[in-house]
Design goal:
Blueprint (H helix, E strand, L loop, with lengths): L10 H14 L9 H24 L5 H26 L2 H6 L1 H20 L10 H15 L7 H19 L10 H10 L5 H19 L3 H40 L18 E3 L5 E3 H9 L18 E2 L1 H13 L7 H33 L2 H14 L4 H9 L2 H8 L5 H15 L2 H9 L3 H10 L3 H14 L3 H8 L2 H13 L2 H15 L5 H6 L2 H9 L7 H11 L3 H8 L4 H11 L2 H15 L4 H9 L3 H11 L2 H18 L8
Antiparallel strand pairs: 1-2, 1-3
Helix pairs in contact: 1-2, 1-3, 2-6, 3-5, 5-6, 7-8, 9-10, 11-13, 13-14, 13-15, 14-17, 16-17, 17-20, 19-20, 20-23, 22-23, 23-26, 25-26, 26-29, 28-29, 28-31, 29-32, 30-32, 31-32
InterPro entries: ARM-like, ARM-type_fold, ARM_PUB, Armadillo, PUB12-19-like_N, RING-Ubox_PUB, Ubox_domain, Znf_RING/FYVE/PHD
Enzyme class: transferase
Keywords: Repeat, Transferase, Ubl conjugation pathway
Length: 648
């Protein structure tokens, strides 16, 4: 593995820095292997800090470290080639090879960990921050699991099923039964335009030629089947799209001259069945019915609260519209208008059915056996999942107090169904007040703390997030310290979705100033910093937003300043984070530098990456990022003015 062409402290380190920067600056990651590629790039970014520290020390290296660095160069070189292959190659063939490619990334990470085994950190003159990052990276690489994205496996399975069914058809039938699914699969891997389809076909043809000598007839036959599938899909999708555009243009040409007073203020289309609402404004029946049935109780045009929901026919305007249609040869009654006229009776019938179902299920919950309660809560959970009207009707049927009781059920499924039904009901704003009034918050916190399934705990966190949108709920929940401890516990133990729910709930609660200290006392800060280094957590932006919010209280500032690894992480995120991530990273750095933060300011000044990153954001960042970057650069300029090293 050792190359004699490298000098120990010269070209080897420079080559490592160069190739690390090449990998870190890869733009527009491919849709296939996205998670593995983004994760391994993050690890190499952390290694680049090690290489730059070694270059800055400019001292002789122990032999074992030279061996380690040489092996790391080999690993990073192969990572670069693998990523480039995923980018330049066929996305569909990459999807077919997803397990093989995932295994390649996994082996490279394991090799990275093996190389770090022989790195004598104690003998290297590294900063404490870099040392901690390398140790953390080493631990993660040693225990890393094979990551095969389940979504890619599902898409590959759908592709294979479509190909199999197509091959089984007679030669006279050229259609595809699962065309909609196929279109979704192709869209998910980035094929959305005719040009992208053509490029993919060329890549598949190149892959078939490449495999012809080594892959065997079966592989080449598979690739040719995919090519014919993509070719056919391209012709169908974009021919249909052209037809739709022609229809839409024809429709626009007919309706372009509609008088404004005949247009519905919601849909801007011709009103076929105009009705008057309580505010006195007129809308098309179909549009205003959809508005009201989705939970709104105000006039869309004026914002005025509707004192009743009656829709009164505007016969005078309807007559004028009818006359205009006749004069302009516009069909007075279309399929759309027929649906619109029938919408209210249909909706009323549907709402009556929901009401009967909800009352029936609440009765089963109140009087049924444990098994019946389990089934009834499951049905309510599903019923509350869609439609504001459903959520209102279920609450009116008296379901909430019974669901609160079932939160303490000893049956895991009943408890999980009850808290999930509560979550779905809480989406309707009026229900939030009813849920809080039912004395549910302590029971919800119980499930969050020690729910019988992880899904129950995570949905309890999501319920707290939903309830805490209302300011009064933030105050009430804030009087329960164990709510914060339980959310921090879920932040530590939950799945990626659970961690995100917990972070979102903590953020919402922290908007109320008095709750910030409680979040800090619960131990959130060290855990949030750790989440910034955890590739699997997937909540970097959420963690940064919450840390930036906690910076606003003295307890939060003090706890955040204790972290030794945060500032280097924030500097990296200035370069590689999302737009929101960059904004919150600057907010944190600016807050840490103010009011006695000279040590953080000095750290920024001696880090070669911080000032260029801030200058770049000051020039090209979002409006908020530019403003914060300018403020931080001015502050750093004042800090170093005595030493005559202006920041610029």
């Amino acid at each position: 593995m050792i190359s004699s062409g490298f000098s120990p402290t010269g070209s080897l380190v420079e080559s490592l820095i160069h190739i690390s920067n090449e990998v870190a600056s890869v733009e527009k990651l491919p849709f296939v292997q996205f998670r593995n590629i983004s994760t391994i790039i993050r690890r190499i970014k952390l290694l680049s800090s090690l290489f730059e520290d070694i270059r800055e020390t400019n001292s002789p290296l122990p032999p074992s470290s030279i061996l380690c660095l040489t092996e790391l160069f080999s690993v990073i070189q192969r990572v670069k080639l693998l990523i480039q292959g995923c980018k330049d190659g066929s996305s569909l063939w990459g999807l077919m090879q997803t397990q093989f490619l995932s295994n390649q990334f996994h082996l490279l990470v394991k090799e990275m960990g093996g190389a770090l085994d022989i790195l004598p950190l104690s003998l290297l003159n590294l900063s404490a921050d870099t040392r901690e990052q390398v140790e953390l990276l080493h631990r993660q690489a040693k225990r890393v699991d094979l990551l095969v994205d389940p979504r890619e496996l599902q898409r590959r399975e759908e592709l294979l099923q479509t190909m199999t069914r197509n091959n089984q058809k007679s030669s006279g039938n050229k259609g595809f039964d699962d065309f909609v699914k196929l279109k979704e699969v192709l869209s998910c891997i980035g094929l959305r335009s005719p040009l992208e389809y053509e490029e993919e076909i060329k890549k598949l043809e190149a892959e078939a030629e490449k495999q012809a000598g080594t892959g065997g007839l079966i592989v080449v036959s598979t690739i040719n089947n995919i090519i014919s599938l993509v070719t056919y899909s391209k012709s169908v999708i974009f021919v249909d799209r052209d037809k739709e555009e022609i229809k839409e243009n024809f429709k626009q040409s007919i309706l372009s001259d509609i008088p404004d007073e005949f247009r519905c203020p919601i849909s801007l289309d011709l009103m076929k069945d105009p009705v008057i609402v309580a505010s006195g404004h007129t809308y098309d029946r179909n549009s205003i019915a959809q508005w009201i049935n989705s939970g709104h109780q105000t006039c869309p045009k004026s914002g005025q609260r509707l004192i009743h929901m009656a829709l009164i026919p505007n016969y005078a305007l309807k007559s004028l519209v009818h006359q205009w249609c006749q004069d302009n040869n516009v069909p007075g009654k279309s399929k759309l208008s027929e649906k619109a006229i029938d919408h209210i009776p249909a909706t009323k019938a549907a709402m009556n059915a929901v009401k009967m179902t909800a009352e029936f299920l609440v009765g089963k919950i109140a009087m049924g056996s444990p098994e019946i309660q389990r089934q009834a809560t499951y049905e309510l959970r599903l019923l509350a999942k869609t439609g504001m009207g459903n959520r209102r009707i279920i609450a009116e049927a008296g379901a909430i107090p019974f669901l609160v009781t079932l939160l303490s059920s000893t049956d895991p499924k009943t408890q999980e169904n009850a808290v999930t039904a509560m979550l779905n009901l809480s989406i309707l704003e009026n229900n939030k007040t009813l849920i809080m009034s039912a004395g549910s918050i302590d029971s919800i916190i119980d499930v969050l703390e020690s729910g019988k399934t992880m899904e129950a705990r995570e949905n309890a966190a999501a319920t707290i997030f939903s309830l805490s949108i209302i300011n009064n709920c933030k105050v009430i929940i804030g009087t329960r310290p164990r709510a914060f401890s339980a959310l921090v516990g879920l932040l530590r133990e939950g799945t990626s979705a659970g961690k995100k729910d917990a972070a979102s709930a903590l953020f919402n609660l922290s908007v109320y100033e008095a709750n910030k200290a409680s979040v800090v006392v619960a131990g959130a800060v060290p855990l949030l910093v750790e989440m910034l280094m955890d590739d699997k957590a997937g909540i970097t932006d959420d963690a940064l937003a919450l840390l930036a919010l906690l910076l606003g209280c003295s307890e939060g500032l003090e706890e955040i300043r204790k972290s030794k690894v945060l500032v280097p992480l924030l500097i990296d995120l200035l370069r590689f984070g999302s737009t929101k991530g960059k904004e919150n990273s600057i907010t944190l750095l600016l807050g840490l530098c103010k009011d006695g933060g000279e040590e953080v300011a000095r750290h920024l000044l001696i880090n070669p990456r911080s000032i260029p990153s801030l200058q770049s954001l000051s020039a090209d960042g979002s409006l908020k990022a530019r403003r914060k970057a300018d403020a931080l650069l001015r502050l750093l300029n004042r800090c170093c003015s005595q030493s005559h090293y202006p920041v610029g």
